[in-house]
Amino acid sequence: MNQDFVVQVMNQGITTVLILSMPVIGVGLLVGFVISLFQAVTQIQEQTLTFVPKVVAVLLLIALTFPWIMSIMVDFTTTLWANIPAMVK
Questions:
Q1: How many angstroms from the chain centroid is the CA of residue 63?
Q2: Residue 85: what pLDDT?
């Protein structure tokens, strides 16, 4: 196992985490923006108003995309396990 292999595995791991987290972060950002816009228009300045819609939207998206997320995570883990013999050498 050399330095290039470690960098490649770390790069794949970071890329996988970013790909899996982007939809959830994007939906949270979009819902937060819409709620903030609603608060600015109606002049409702309640701090806790943003939390419930964000949590519901994020959990709903995670539930909808869970099979896709798990398939990517299983593929990444399977690739890591298959490369263990190359890591030992």
A1: 13
A2: 86
- Provide the 10 A C-beta neighbour count for residue 79: 12
What pLDDT is recorded for position 44? 84
CB of 73 within 8 A of CB of 2? no
**Residue 57 and residue 25 in contact, taking contact as beta carbons nearer than 8 Å:** no
Secondary structure letter of residue 43 according to DSSP = T
**For range 54-60, the mean pLDDT:** 95
What are the strands, taking DSSP E only, across the chain? Answer: none
4-53 tens-digit pLDDT: 888 999 999 999 999 999 999 999 999 999 999 998 899 888 878 889 99
**CA 25/CA 82 separation, integer angstroms:** 31
Alpha carbon distance 71, 52 (integer Å): 29
Closest CA to 68 of 29, 9, 23, 15: 23
